[in-house]
Amino acid sequence: MKNFKLLLAAAVVFGAGSAFTTAKVKTAEQVYVDVDGIRTPIEQADGKCELGGPYCQYTLDGDTPVPRDSNSHFESN
Asked: What confidence category does residue 1 fall into, taking pLDDT thresholds of 50, 70 and 90?
């Protein structure tokens, strides 16, 4: 019984420690573009920003897009 308690305590400590090491560190806000109406991280988008339009790049505040630029739009390759 004592071994079981020690094993259980070790599992709890290990689990709590793992929760902090796997938490994603937010170093910068993710930048998105709209590709054919689909919100896509800019790193995964195949295309570029062109002049004309409300904005090309944006971040998100919850589900609300926050423009990072103006007078441009995204053109897929």
From this structure: confident
